[in-house]
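Work package 3, deliverable 3.1, input record:
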Amino acid sequence: MLTGFLILMVFELLGELLQAAFQMPVPGSVIGMFLLAAALIITENGAVPAVTAVLKDLKRLSHFLLSWMGLFFVPVGAGLLAERDLLTREWFPVLAAVTGSTIISILTTGLVMHFLLRPQPVHSPQPGRVRP
Amino acid sequence: MSGFATHLWPLLVGNPLIWLALTLGGYLAGRALQNSSGGVPFVNPVLVAIAVVMAALAATGTSYRTYFAGAQLIHFLLGPATIALAVPLARHFALIRDNLRSVGLALLAGSASAIISSVAIVHLCGGPHVIALSMAPKAATTPIAMAVSKQIGGMPELTASVAILGGITAAIAGQWMLKMLAISDWRAQGLAAGVAGSGIAAAHVAARNETGAAFAAIGVGMNGLLTALLVPLLVALWH
């Protein structure tokens, strides 16, 4: 999985460089994610055997990283500790706004998707919503 | 015990291994609890691990800075994991392209509703304006949220904290709430998680379904961009 790791690091570095060079408002890792996605879409069309082996490695690694991604947020998350004075003083508006607005945003996004999406082509057709 | 406290403890505090083990142990305990509870939403492994770490730091009187320096290696993997979202994203690119209009509208609606509702709720609860400003960009991925908060005169550290709390809330409540509304499509669940809860909620979805991971990746990336554009605009209109 080391080849895959090298690819991920190179694209993260590329994203960081672009972010710094053009003062982009998006973090380098997000730019790197879009760059790698674009590169994968391009290479998948013209499959070269050597590239295929590398891609397989990358897929295995990304599957591993994504299934553990929650863990990687814990060190930043424990930073709540540094804000505990403010959070205990203003806990009510903060907590109400965090839970309230997160739930409102989930429902809004989910409902708009639900009513505008075309039924999924391969599996789970939604009964009662027939669209051309 | 006093020998341990005076001689061994100072050696351990400076060793990153103890903080790495604590973080990994807390997370694994959270996963085991989640599995044995049959998937009760509130037993979220990220939440359990954060609680374990915070309790250990408070009990030993260790500063957050000391802990973070030790747990750096786990934090470092967040970057490669974010890039790794490109894999499901590329794989399901055709599915996203075919639903571009729905995805775009849902993104806009989800992003705007997160910003407006967080500011409105703080004011309704009688919170100070600076807290409302700090909450406005909280649905964006943490680095974007902090930068926007600073730009509009909020408190970036508070924004980082509420971004994490929001992510945990979205991971806990998201799947469960959309299921209640009979929205089981992973495309909708993934996008909603990415828009409302950024990385933490996206991680929750990405560990479960690949289509969900692709739409969560789009949600995190595009909501970051939209929040960076919308929040300064809305704040300017508010005044």
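Chain A is about 70% helix and 0% strand.
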